[in-house]
Design goal:
Number of strands: 10
Structural class: alpha/beta
CATH architecture of the largest domain: 3-Layer(aba) Sandwich
Distance between the termini: 76 Å
Radius of gyration: 24 Å
Number of helices: 9
CATH class of the largest domain: Alpha Beta
Number of domains: 2
Length: 268
């Protein structure tokens, strides 16, 4: 009798164990993920959109790689796994289209961004406008030449050359005052927020919620500013292309537009 009871208990334990393993296997089978390579200027927006997306897609995990668009392009070319590419420059997107690494039909415009002149909250250099950036002793932090915001900054400087209020002298003074070149726009923004530079040219979106009390935005004249176009592209061999499409749908939805506006993007 004792043996029968023992065998019954063992049998019941095995049934429960198999059922548990089955549940785990089922969860793993149904689980999914999406890997997003996004420009550093999207850090705040992606951070807010991730929990919204995951809540609407139970079992799906969003993994983000946030860096310079040029760095992300290189990583994708070298075989890094990504499902969705969100650069800050058409050039980086088009380069991957040429390599047939981005599905051209998937490219979706979703926002624009503008350059912003930022200074530390206490503004130690007393900067009141763009023209002050060429004054002696002003410390400017910029970005390396391949970073999109630096390319947009150069476009802005080209405009000032032909403006009588600025001219070549302004451009020369601006470049002389650059004390460091960061590998992405987030690095430049951080340096200004820490007071390691008097000013920097970033995007409006880089003044995230956690930096709002540490930096101040000073308007760049509209005629000199440069508008950056933000587009999404799905990687050709994406493992989770369906999820990537769903994330693009979120970006272009009313909910997505609200988040983008919170970070000073202009939704398309």
């Amino acid at each position: 009798m004792k043996k029968i009871i023992t065998y019954s208990i063992i049998g019941l334990f095995m049934v429960l164990l198999i059922a548990q393993i089955g549940c785990v296997s089922g969860a793993e089978t149904n689980a999914s993920e999406i890997t997003i390579f996004a420009a550093a200027s999207l850090t705040g927006a992606i951070g807010d959109l991730t929990p919204i997306f995951e809540a609407a897609h139970p079992g799906v995990k969003v993994t983000s790689n946030l860096d310079s668009s040029a760095t992300l392009e290189t990583q994708i070319k070298e075989g890094a796994h990504a499902d969705l590419f969100l650069p800050a420059s058409d050039k980086n997107l088009n380069n991957l289209v040429k390599e047939k690494m981005i599905d051209n039909s998937s490219i979706t415009p979703y926002a624009t961004n503008k350059l912003a002149l930022i200074v530390p909250a206490d503004n130690p250099a007393g900067i009141t406008g763009l023209a002050d950036l060429s004054k002696d002793g002003v410390k400017i932090v910029s970005e390396t030449s391949e970073v999109p915001v630096r390319k947009y900054t150069d476009q802005m400087l080209n405009k000032t050359v032909n403006d009588t209020a600025y001219g070549q002298a302004f451009v020369d003074g601006f470049k002389k005052n650059i004390i460091s070149e960061e590998t992405n726009v987030a690095g430049a923004t951080t340096k200004v927020s820490l007071g390691e530079a008097d000013a920097g040219i970033t995007y409006y979106s880089d003044v995230t919620k956690d930096l709002a009390d540490k930096v101040k935005i000073i308007e760049i004249p509209e005629k000199l500013n440069v508008v950056a176009s933000y587009k999404a592209g799905i990687i050709t061999d994406a493992e989770h292309a369906d999820m990537a499409k769903e994330f693009v749908t979120l970006l272009t939805s009313d909910e997505g537009k609200t988040v983008l506006k919170d970070y000073k993007f202009s939704p398309v």
